[in-house]
Amino acid sequence: MITENIMQSEELIIDLGNNPKKLKLIKRKIKLEKKDNLLFDSFEFTKNLEKIYLNLIEMKKKKEMKKDSLIYIAGHNGLVGSAIERKLRTDGYENILTISKSELNLTKFEDVEKFFSSNNIEYVFDAAAKVGGINANNKYSADFIYQNTMIQSNLIHNAWKFGVKKFLFLGSVCIYPKLAPTPVKEESLLCGDLEHTNEAYAIAKIHGIKLLKAYNKQYGLKGISLMPCNLYGPNDNFHPENSHVIPALIRKFHEASDNVIECWGDGTPLREFMYVDDFADACLIAMRSNIENGEHLNVGSGEEVSIRSLAGMISEITNYHGQILWDKSMPNGTPKRSLNYSRILDLGWEPKHKLKNGLKKVYEWFKDNL
Fold first, then answer.
1. Residues 205, 251: contact at Cβ < 8 Å?
2. Cβ-contact 189, 204 below 8 angstroms
3. What pLDDT sits at residue 3?
4. Do the beta carbons of residue 262 and residue 273 sit within 8 Å?
5. Is 54 exposed, middle or buried (0-12, 13-18, 19+ CB in 10 A)?
């Protein structure tokens, strides 16, 4: 049967999440009957595909973001914010509100309040944050806690106050305990000690997760939080000292003037990396989903490599042929922290970029934007 052939393809099922016309057609063909459960007359799904499909159906029942909805992206010039803007515009959303740091200081409550009162904002993507690598977290820990807690507090409070329909908060894998069992599940939050090298940022992000949950519980503010693995891509911060590992290594290898490069730690920690455009896809799926109670979901790539292997990939891509030395006196950070991201997969999302291909793309972007 045509129906069976169509629905046996996982790729087509996932594709339905962004194609309402296809979904409507398939629903008519399958003749879904709703009693205690949804019954599938024409064929049998595996449990995983059935779960994906049911979530897509539920998503379509919700009132989606309209193409003309006013959407505010906080932090639109950064790595994640710029990727979300690209994705929104690709999907046909044009009523997008952005404002620069120089025009709006998100740590100032009165300024944020005035901004929200002057705009009828319907949806908020909160990608604004003070971020950095191990060195920046250690050196500016007070700034990391203060600025991030102020930014998210001001945004969440005013989103509630001025009737925002849904709020998306972005956290980080570093919210989880240093020695949490891997792949780390959402339930591991607050079940152990944090990694001390990025504790300040982690505490601030945990505050944001709990604040959004509290505003949902007390005031009914609809929202969802996403916790990505390590992200990389265009518009990243390539500062030689304060950036994350991928942009730091790209710049270091690209600018190498001799045959020896020194890297922090011993290279053994394992990390899961994801190209930022894949994460932007997850953000839109989460915003459109029926999860609105402030829950946090992990978003991973399933591709985990050692820092030593990562350095080898980047040296090859940048054509660096010299020696790499490892400074074992410097901190490694968390030994391993891959994520269990089954819940976002159940919403119909999946990563598209393999690490090596993503690294090549971001290196080309880096060279073009020097």
1. no
2. no
3. 41
4. no
5. middle
Predicted confidence at residue 138, as pLDDT, reads 83
Sequence-distant contacts of 80-84: CB under 8 A, at least 24 apart: 80/127, 80/170, 80/231, 80/276, 80/279, 80/280, 80/283, 81/125, 81/127, 81/128, 82/234, 82/235, 83/233, 83/234, 83/235, 83/276, 83/277, 83/279, 83/280, 84/125, 84/127, 84/280, 84/283, 84/284
Angle at 149 (CA atoms; ends 144, 155), nearest 5 degrees: 130
**What sign does the dihedral 90-105-208-234 (CA atoms) show?**
positive
Q: What is the pLDDT of residue 49?
A: 58
Q: Using alpha carbons, list the distances in angstroms from residue 73 to 17, 103, 126, 149.
A: 22, 14, 6, 18
CA dist 158 and 130 (Å) reads: 20
pLDDT score of 29: 44
Q: Are the C-beta atoms of residues 344 and 280 closer than 8 Å to each other?
A: no
Q: Which amino acid is at 298?
A: N
> How many angstroms separate the Cα of 22 from the Cα of each of 13, 57, 104?
10, 12, 42
Whether residue 181 has a cis bond before it, omega within 30° of 0:
no
Among 280, 169, 150, 282, which Cα is nearest to 221's?
Answer: 169
> Per the confidence metrics, is the pTM higher than 0.85?
no
Residues annotated as catalytic are 201
Q: Where are the domains of the chain?
A: 2-61, 71-368
Residues of the chain with pLDDT under 70: 1-63
Look up residue 336 and give its two tokens: 């391993």
Q: Which CATH number applies to 71-368: 3.40.50.720, 2.40.240.10, 3.90.1210.10, 3.40.50.1100?
A: 3.40.50.720
